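Box S1 | Example of a co-folding query
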Amino acid sequence: AAREGGQESIVYFNSRMVEGKEKVMRVQQLFPKALENGEFKVFYQPKIDIETGELAGAEALCRWIRDGRIVPPMEFIPILEQNTDICKLDFHMLDMVCKDIKRWLAEGRNVVRVSVNLSRKHMMDVDLLEHILRIIDENEVPHKYIEIELTETTTDVEFKDLKRVVNGLQMAGIYTSVDDFGMGYSSLKLIREIPWNVLKVDKSFLPVDDDSAESTRTIMFKYVVAMAKALGLETIAEGVETEHQVDVLRDNRCSFAQGFLFDKPLPLNEFEDRLTKHKYEMNK
Ligand code: C2E
Ligand code: MG
Ligand code: MG
Ligand code: MG
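Box S1 (continued) | Returned holo structure for C2E
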């Protein structure tokens, strides 16, 4: 099986190219064919209901399978974001997710909501909403099964676009989540002025193992979750790796968790096992 991340995928591009112009050009050159050939795959990372240990949803994360190796997103997403290639990839991901959901429904499986990441590069696209709805509707997927993850924007113009997009998705009954909350600038304006359904607390707010209840991280985690809940948002912590963190999530009534403690992003066939019969062990 291909190993994820680290040296191996870098080798493919040749270490000298890693951050250079050459690698950017190589990725941009390979992209159209790779997209056409189906080299980009959806991996699904489970989201777990902390109270019940049940599968509550999943995040779709892109993996580029190149010569039997798995290339992680950080090796190509930032490059695809240098032009509008990323938009093609995101729509392709949404389409693949919709096709999977459509099949799960047809097979009578227990289906959960799946979130898809959308680059902020889409914000300039005035037809974005139409595009998203067309993909979902062509696959006949009920809107409630789709969630769109968006990160904060950096300019006022982008902010207005983001607000318009989230409002539109809301009206169409599609869930929206603010991703990586707490990273970057993440102003409170983002929460005050945009009607998100879900707040994803970034892992930088999660307590590390020897943190006490009075540590800065734990205090901030507590109040971010409390604020989100009071405003009616669902809360999920990402990057959960330890039991200690689960305890802190539970103490602070954060409802959902996503992280390596439960599962890494899984290829389709492994994730499908999680849809049936699986229950996560929660030590209370
Ligand atoms: P993200 O949307 O914040 O996704 C969560 C990232 O955290 C994923 O990295 C996931 O593998 C990682 N993660 C999950 N649990 C843990 C944990 O317990 N510990 C640690 N250390 N990490 C954990 P991944 O898959 O490498 O993706 C990185 C980023 O690339 C994503 O961050 C997202 O911003 C972007 N990305 C991935 N797929 C897509 C896509 O289809 N479209 C767009 N536009 N961006 C994508
Ligand atoms: Mg995400
Ligand atoms: Mg995230
Ligand atoms: Mg993140």
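Residues 176 and 196 are 5 Å apart (CA to CA). The chain has a mean pLDDT of 91.
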